[in-house]
Amino acid sequence: MKKTAIILFLVLAIPALLTSCLFDEEDLFDKSASERIEAAKQEAKTVLESAENGWHVRYFPSPTQEFGGYNLFFKFSEGSVTVASEIESNPSTTETSLYSFGEDLGVTLNFDTKNSLINYFVHPKNPDNIGSTYKGMEGDYKFTVMETSAAMVVLRGIITGNYYILTPVSADTDWSEDLETYRNNAEDMSFNTYSFVVKDKTYSATLTNRRFAVKIDSETTVYAPFIYTKAGISFYMPVEIDGVTAQNFTFVDDYYFAEASGADFKIMTPEPVRSDITFEVTVPDATKTYNSVTVNTVPSTDTEYYYMGLMLKSEFEAQREKKLLQSLVGTLNGNIGAGDDPETIAASLLHKGADTYTLNYPSFYDEYVAVVFGCAVSNGFIVSTTPITSLPVSIDASLLPDNTDPLYKRWLGKWRVTSTTSQVNEAPVTFEVIVKPGTVNSSYMIRGWGITIYGNRYDLRAYYQASYNGASTPAIPIPKSTGILYTKTDNAIYGYDGVYPIRTRYSRITHSTGAYSSFTTTQTSPKLVGIYDEAQAGQATMYGSGYNTGTDYVGIEFFRWTENQASYYTSPAVRPGYTAKDFPVGPFTWVQLMDADGNDLTTGTPAE
Which DSSP letter does residue 394 get? Predict the structure, then answer.
C-alpha cells in the first residue's frame, strides 16, 4: 500500500461524447466542426444565462484541493458575469466583469476582465496570505465546459483539473442571506480537534484550511477536502473508510457531523460542557456615577464559574452570539501560558457566587451591554457552558455633580480632530475622540486619540485647568485663556489608578527646517494644550507646549505602554483607513460633534 493515499471517487457523469470530437477532421455530421463548436458555445450561453437568479458554485481551488471549497454565486447576462462570494465580510458584495466562450479541446468559459472575487483564488499573492507567496491558492478563471443542463452545469478548471458544480439558485433566494449562512456555519462548525468514527472505530483527523487529513494507519492518510453547506459540510468527492462511503454530513447538536443518509460514519469534535446555571443581572441606579457603572450578578449556584463584563452595544450587536462567545472565551484562554494551571487562571479571571463588575470611565455618548455567561475548565482550557445573559446599560450627563464647572463641562462630548499635517503622507489626518469625565473639574479621559488600534482600546488621561498664562516658550503663541485641556509631561501617573497604562509621546519638529528629532533619555515628552475658542462655541485648537529646550515643535503620536511597571516602546498597528506610522502632526483643530448633554451639534438635534 502506498504511504499516502487519496481516496476519491468521481461521481460526475462525464458525457460519453467528448467535445474534442468536434475537431475531427472527417465530417461525419450534417454541420462542420466549426459550426458544431459555435452551436455548443451558444447552447452553453443559453443555459448559463437562463438561470433567472444565477448559479450556486462549489469552488475548489488548488490541484490538490488543499484549501477546501468555497461557496460562490455566478449570474450570467449578455457577456457579463456577476459574482458573490462567502469570502466577503459583507455578504451583499458583488462584482461584475466580462466573460466569453472559447475553444481548447472543447468549449471553454473564460473570465476575461479582472474580478476581485475570483482573483482572490487566482492571484499569486492571496490577500489573506493563504497559499504560497508566489502561487496563492492556484484557483481557476478559465474552465472547460463538461456538461450543461437546466439542472446542473459541470465545469473543469484548466489550471487545477478540478470539477466545479453549478446548480441553479431558486428565484426566491437572497444571495446575501445564503452567503451569510455559509460564513456563519464556517465559524460555528470550526473546532480545535476532530476524529472520524466509522463503524465504532475512531481515526484521528487534523484540519488545515478546509481539508481533513485522516490517519488510517501508519502508512495511509486519507485527505478529505470539503465545503460548508447550509446543513453541515460536503466533501469534494465521496470518501471511503472501512468499506463505508460518505460525502454529505449534517451538523448535529452543535458539536458533531453525521452522514446525511444515515451511514455509520461520523465526524466528532469535543462534546461541549453544558450547565443549567442561570443569572440575575442588574445595574442599580445607585451604582451609577458620572465616571463608573457597576453590574451586579447573582447566579443560581455558587459552585460554577461565570464571566461578567460590559461592552459597547455596537460591538455586542455586531457579532452573533456564538461568535461573541468564541471571541470572549478566546481572550480568556489567551491568558493561559505554557505551564500555567488553568484552574488558577480561571479563578483569577472569572467569578463564583454573587459578585460585581465595575466599568470605570464609561461614555455618556455610548450605550453598553452587560454580558454574563457560565464557564468551566475542560481539557486545560476555559469553555463557555451557557448562552449569554445580557442587559442594556447607559449613563448620561445628568449624573454630573451640581458643582461641575461650565468651562470644564464644555470639553465633554464627541469631537472631530484634524492635524495640520502627518509624518508620512504630509497631509492632515482626521480622527474622532470622545472626551469623558475623569474627576470632575480636574481630569478627563480621551478615547479614540490618534491612528493606532490602541486609541480605540484605551483612554488617554488629560487634565483641566481653569486658567492658563500662556506658553512657556514664545515659539508657540498660546493666548491667555480660561478652561483649558492639557496632557502632562510626567510618566509616573500612568498605570497606578485603574487607568490602563498607555499614553501618547511626542517628537520635536523644528519649524525652520521641518526636521524631526527624537527624545534622548534625559528628555521628557511635552504637553499638549487645548484652547477652547471663546468666539466660536464648539471649536478648539490643541498645541504643543513647554519643551524643555525651547525648540519649536508640534506633537507626533507615539505610544508608551507600561505593563507591571515595566516600560517598553512599540510601533502599534494602525486602525483601518490609516497609513502605518503616519503619525499626525499638530497643531490640532477640534470641532465638537456632540456636547456633554448628548445634543448633536452637526444637525442641531437635541438629546432624547
Answer: -
